[in-house]
Amino acid sequence: MTTSDAQRVTTGTDPAPNTISTDLGTGSIGLGGALMQAIAQISPTLGIFYTIAFTTSQAGRAAPLTYLAAFLICLVLAAPMVGLARHLPSAGGFYTYVSAGIGPKSGFIVGWLYGLSVAIVPAALAAFTGSVLESELAGKYGFGVPWWVYSAVILVICFACAYRGITISVRFLVVMTCFEMVVGLGLAVTGLFSPGPGGVNVSGFNPTSIPSSSGFFLAVVLSIFAFTGFESAAAVGEESRDPKRIIPKAIIGSLILIGVFYVVTAWGLQIGWGTDKLDSLATSATAPAFVLSDRLWAGGSIIVLIALVNSGLGVCIACTTSATRTLYGIARTDALPKALTIVHEKYRTPLVAVVLQSAVALIICLGVGVPLGPVNLFNMLGTTGTFVYIPIFIMMNIAAFLFFRKRVPGEFSIWAHVVAPIISTAALILIGYNSIVPLPASPILFAPFIAAAYVISGLVILFARNLRPGKRGWMEHAGELPDID
Predict the structure, then answer these.
(1) Any alpha helices (H) in 142-165, and if so which ranges?
(2) What is the DSSP string of 1-34?
(3) In this structure, is the dihedral angle defined by the CA atoms of residues 252, 257, 262 and 263, taken in order, positive or negative?
(4) Are 308 and 51 in contact (CB under 8 A)?
(5) Coil, helix or strand at residue 350
(6) Would you tell me which of 14, 217, 289, 425 could form a disulfide with 10, CB atoms 3.0–4.6 Å apart?
(7) Side-chain half-sphere of 69: how many Cα atoms within 13 Å?
(8) 230 sits in which H/E element
(9) What DSSP state is assigned to residue 204?
(10) Which residue has the higher pLDDT, 444 or 207?
(11) Reduced to 3 states, what is the DSSP secondary structure of residue 467?
(12) What is the widest separation between alpha-carbon atoms in the chain?
């Protein structure tokens, strides 16, 4: 970063953020790579194929409208983040944002929550994807391989991509993500051209089709968290070309592309199934996408299965990238052990962070998934992520307000830094409340307690390690920027 670049971060006499060195592979990816990083972590086909039954059960014909509402809410949520990503392109992501806006202590807890929770996501997604593979391949083709074998293979592939570097990871993500989105849209378009009972109609976008406001709200809640992952573009800021321009575009671009994908696919799936028979879609024992593809594509559910495996593998790779870069960014300031900053000499990847994250994901996937069951593990950790994202985004909203109000007053916006944060914070609080009232059944019941354990572990590290006398030097560097162009 040049001196003039640093000076543009603030106005007046306010000091610009200092810079720290980065050993990652700078300039390795462009806008397309950052965009696919975010889209892959959202997990398009898994996000729609495995939520459409629930959203239909709650919102009936208006299920497509729930994805549209969630998309608009997420755009509001992204408004303050885009500005932070433009000024603070750091692998630390939320850690850097909140440290620069609120302070290093808050920044550490938020960064720890994000890094830890996203690091564990591959365990849940690999288990779930392995379960889908076992069910489909055993039931239709007689392959009796247990789910955990598939899951272990997925995590090994994920590790190999993360180990070899961001360029390899992005190439995988581009191919896999484009393929799965083509399959999802293809199935939806086929449904529109071969509609079930009820024909082609737009009742899915008519508010009068909403059967109950409470059911519609619950469907919107699930749909919002089907969008999470758009923020992960920030994690590859240091490895992208012109990050101040690319990362904000990747954040908004991923939301727009996924918003269109979800809305169109949800509409097409319902039309293809038949809007007069949506009760059977909501209660289908098999994922509706498998049922539809067998009917519309003459037994083409294998294509949907490949797309889902692509989606599961893609989100595992994307989450590994996000988690390891976040942990690397925190450790670089000495708020976590320096070993996490060790970078592979050839591939320029955070080697120790990648090995540690991959080992933890494999241990949780097999050690917890085998006794608990892969689907239960997925539901439990997925819901845990809901509770973790709520405080992360709320703190990011506060950080954006303070950062732009105090450090970049010339860019302060009532809409982006006051109105949007208030709306999204209120929505997040409502989501949290409705996620625990009434209390869900076990094992999802454990999700808020696991999220609390994440917070407690972060507080223990903060007070037992980082705030000890002689150990507080990291606080001076928590909001600093990497030395990139």
Answers:
(1) 147-164
(2) --HHHHHTTS-TTPPPPPEE---S-TT-B-HHHH
(3) positive
(4) no
(5) strand
(6) 14
(7) 21
(8) none
(9) G
(10) 207
(11) coil
(12) 71
Contact 208, 51 (CB under 8 A): no
**H or E element in which residue 252 lies:** helix 243-273
Are 348 and 24 in contact by the 8 Å Cβ rule? The answer is yes
Q: Which residues pair with 481 in a beta bridge?
A: 19
- Reduce the DSSP state of residue 30 to 3 states and report it: coil
Which residue, 438, 36, 53, is CA-closest to 222? 53
Q: How far apart are CA 437 and CA 197, in angstroms?
A: 37
d(CA 167, CA 351): 15
* Of residues 368, 302, 265, 358, the one with CA closest to residue 137: 302
User: Which residues are CB-neighbours of 344 under 8 A, at least 6 positions away?
Assistant: 163, 165, 350, 351
Residue 202 gets which letter from DSSP?
-
Peptide bond into 207 cis (omega under 30): no
Q: Which of 149, 42, 26 is nearest to 90 (CA)?
A: 26
Residue 135: how many other CB atoms lie within 10 Å: 17
Count Cβ neighbours within 10 Å for each residue of 1-12 and write b for 16 or more, e otherwise: beeeeeeebbee
Q: Are 57 and 282 in contact (CB under 8 A)?
A: yes
Helices 420-436 and 213-226, axial angle in degrees (round to 10) = 110
Q: What is the pLDDT of residue 235?
A: 81
Query: Which of 389, 412, 315, 374 lies closest to 10, judged by CA?
Result: 412
Contact 93, 229 (CB under 8 A): no
According to the model, what pLDDT value does residue 156 have?
Answer: 96
How many CA atoms within 13 Å lie on the side-chain side of 196? 21
- Model pTM above 0.85: yes
Return d(Cα 141, Cα 176) in angstroms, integer.
24
Enter the tokens of residue 248. Answer: 């904000």
The pLDDT tens digits of the residues spanning 263-307 come to 999 999 999 999 999 999 999 988 899 999 999 999 889 999 999
Is residue 18 predicted with pLDDT exceeding 80? no
